[in-house]
Amino acid sequence: xxxxxxxxxxxxxxxxxxxxxxxxxxxxxxxxxxxxxxxxxxxxxxxxxxxxxxxxxxxxxxxxxxxx
Length: 68
Hints:
Layout: E1 13-18, E2 21-32, E3 35-40, E4 46-48, H1 49-52, E5 62-65
Antiparallel strand pairs: 1-2, 1-5, 2-3, 3-4
């Protein structure tokens, strides 16, 4: 079961799976509501959660904390 976006915490690492894409991100800042600025751990690019979910939530959607 995925973590609710309200429960994401700044500085923690998460794995986001959606529409066949797997991204490992760290939460950088909370912007407003359930929108966060995130840093992709593979490419080091900055995104917002809204940008990553803008095309909808697929059947494979999952977000879990990484404990390493």
